[in-house]
Amino acid sequence: MSLLKVDRLSKKYTKNVQALDDVSFSVNEGECIGIVGESGSGKSTLAKVLVGLESYRDGTVLFNGIPILPKKRDLLRQFRKNVQMIFQDSTSSLNPKLPVWKSILEPLDNFKEVSPSFLNIKGLSRKEIAEELMEIVGLDRSLSERYPEELSGGQKQRVGIARAISIEPLLLVCDEPTASLDVTVQVQILRLLKELQKTKNLTILFISHDLRAVSYLCEKVIVLKDGRMVDSFGLADLYQEERHEYTKALIKAASLDR
Ligand SMILES: Nc1ncnc2c1ncn2[C@@H]1O[C@H](COP(=O)(O)OP(=O)(O)OP(=O)(O)O)[C@@H](O)[C@H]1O
Ligand SMILES: [Mg+2]
């Protein structure tokens, strides 16, 4: 069974903006799927629907066979435990009043019943647990007392990743997690995600306008244009003649063409 199954999903905002139009795809456990498309193609809308932050009327979204319905609070709590999101703008997703270590512990505080299998937390203080998580994402422990404004963009993004993986989600939805970072830091974050995917068997939905980043991380790619899925393929078929014209244009724009 697919971990995530999206079937004929459409989403209209008011003023008749058709942000998503008949989108269907599925994601198996341990897979990394990339979603690419230009600005306004519906990527963030899709991410928000998938994490239960945005409602939808048409189509179905199933996670582990259970529908994601933003209005069912109990189901949503269970679901939040299994699906975490990393946002493009790490600044607005971190509480400016909390030092790094407290920010990192927020999800574990919300789900006290969870203890991540990759951490031996016995005998550790709460702060030490946060510091262990910092190490996993390549952040120096000495930064634990800092506030978000005292961190670089890349460091903040790592805090976001540490938070997200702390409760060992089954699915990680990343909405342009590297868009605000410079190229070397982008590569580091992509490497980190790839390593986490492998070592923790994470399923990742990676959203980006950058086909280069997607082709580094993901084995399957979905292309969105004006809310419609115009192409979907395995990475090995990136250069096949049957690719949609729009995909070819993205390949060219990313200077990936041969
Ligand atoms: N809350 C909203 N109300 C009305 N329209 C919206 C809302 N959010 C997004 N839209 C519109 O829906 C469409 C898809 O937006 P979305 O944010 O999903 O695109 P995106 O692919 O994430 O773009 P970007 O790459 O710029 O982040 C756009 O036309 C946008 O203007
Ligand atoms: Mg977006």
UniProtKB/TrEMBL annotation:
The keyword Ligase does not apply. Gene3D superfamilies: P-loop containing nucleotide triphosphate hydrolases (3.40.50.300). Keywords: ATP-binding, Nucleotide-binding, Transport. GO terms for biological process: transmembrane transport. The keyword Nucleotide-binding applies. Pfam families: ABC_tran. Transmembrane segments: none annotated. One of its GO terms (molecular function) is ATP hydrolysis activity. Residues 4-251 form the ABC transporter domain. InterPro entries: AAA+_ATPase (IPR003593), ABC_transp_ATP-bind (IPR050319), ABC_transporter-like_ATP-bd (IPR003439), ABC_transporter-like_CS (IPR017871), P-loop_NTPase (IPR027417). PANTHER family: D,D-DIPEPTIDE TRANSPORT ATP-BINDING PROTEIN DDPF-RELATED (PTHR43776:SF7), TRANSPORT ATP-BINDING PROTEIN (PTHR43776). Belongs to the ABC transporter superfamily. This is ABC transporter ATP-binding protein.
